[in-house]
Design brief:
The structure holds two protein chains of two kinds. By secondary structure, chain A is mostly helical. Chain A is built from ten helices and no strands. In chain A, helix 3 crosses helix 5 and helix 4 crosses helix 5. Classes of the chains: A mainly alpha, B mainly alpha.
């Protein structure tokens, strides 16, 4: 059970974002810009960064949600599984490998990233903006993962939930629907 | 020098915010909501959480900046130094703030480190749900800001006077005011 009184029936980040709407708004907007805004990294690639960082932070809710979103958007569930095992042998571009390595460093600490890590990514074609966004997406998920687990929110165990969540955040993104969410109707075991 | 080309030679997060104004906007809004808006935690107390987490993350720019903002709100630099040195137990802050700083320190390591017992302890000292929520979110937010600032290799001034100026300016004007007015 969550450490604070969030609405029943709203799991993980959803309950927290409904708990305080004025802090939720910029968090949602930032996520929408970084994961769904115009970018030379496609949406699947950006969800892979979110999934990897959340996995490394052992945040089961975020890792399950963004793995499901990455699977949907890349159309290949093998990729998200492979990057968690070994970035070098994963079926992704050399540029993505270099960016995921930077993300892995940032997950530990910003101070772990070296000039050499960045040079490598650049040699594989990464632009300044791609490097910037990789670091900021990683930073953002270090926020989310701590927020979700630090307040001990509900993590549904049914994998179907994360698939249905991915079908929503995949095409619709991260902004709040006009009427928010209703705990009683939100979570369906059979989704 | 930063790892990416920043338009002007501004230190810390300021160069990054100039580089990408679209993401700067919600980032500034978030920090303004958490650190400046009215709350049962004082502005100085919230800045202490930000400075504490940043010092645990060894982020020189953020730790010094938010330490300076805290100093201006509290009118006391000694507390800030105690907190930045991780001497929470002996710092001149309330038992409630000590318990909240303890939770913030756990969040800095991992969200999973926070226990029911940590929460109970803070509650016994009078912490409310909203204060617990905000403490965790401030700590988590600075785990983002610190990684952003250091992960892109931005510079951090050495001169304490620079941070003092930034601290006075932010304490007075908040985080939505333009960032180009501090020399």
């Amino acid at each position: 059970m969550a450490y604070i009184d969030v609405e029943d029936g709203l799991p993980g980040i959803t309950g927290l974002l409904e708990y305080r709407l004025d802090s939720a708004k910029p968090i949602r907007e930032l996520t929408q810009i970084l994961l769904r805004g115009a970018s030379s990294l496609n949406e699947g690639e950006r969800e892979l960064i979110a999934a990897l960082v959340s996995h490394k932070n052992e945040c089961v809710f975020c890792s399950s949600a963004h793995t499901a979103a990455a699977n949907l958007l890349t159309g290949d569930s093998g990729i998200s599984a492979a990057i968690k095992e070994d970035i070098d042998s994963a079926p992704i571009s050399a540029k993505m490998k270099a960016l995921l390595k930077i993300a892995s460093k940032v997950q530990e600490s910003g101070l772990s990233v070296t000039e050499d890590d960045v040079e490598k990514a650049r040699k594989k074609g990464a632009t300044d903006k791609e490097i910037h966004d990789t670091v900021l997406i990683t930073g953002l998920f270090c926020l989310y993962n701590r927020y979700v687990d630090g307040l001990n929110t509900w993590t549904p165990e049914n994998p179907k939930y994360y698939k249905s969540l991915a079908r929503r955040i995949g095409p619709k993104g991260y902004l709040r629907p006009p009427n928010g969410y209703e705990g009683k109707k939100y979570y369906k075991e059979e989704d | 020098m930063a790892y990416i080309s920043l338009p002007e030679d501004l230190p810390g997060i300021r160069g990054l915010m100039n580089y990408r104004p679209e993401t700067a906007q919600p980032l500034n809004q978030l920090v303004d909501v958490l650190l400046q808006k009215p709350s049962s935690l004082g502005k100085g107390e919230r800045e202490l959480i930000a400075s504490y987490v940043s010092s645990l993350n060894k982020c020189k720019y953020c730790s010094n900046t938010h330490g300076a903002v805290a100093k201006h709100h509290l009118g006391d630099g000694e507390i800030v130094e105690q907190v930045k040195a991780n001497n929470i137990d002996t710092a001149s802050v309330s038992s409630k703030v000590k318990a909240l700083l303890n939770i913030a320190g756990k969040v800095q390591r991992s969200g999973r480190s926070v226990t029911e017992k940590d929460i109970e302890k803070a509650r016994k000292e009078g912490a409310t749900d909203k204060e617990l929520h905000d403490t965790v979110l401030i700590a988590a937010s600075f785990c983002m800001f610190n990684r952003y600032v250091d992960g892109l290799g931005t510079s951090a001034p050495d001169d304490p006077e620079v941070y003092d100026q930034i601290g006075a300016y932010r304490a007075e004007n908040g985080y939505q005011a333009p960032n180009n007015e501090i020399k």
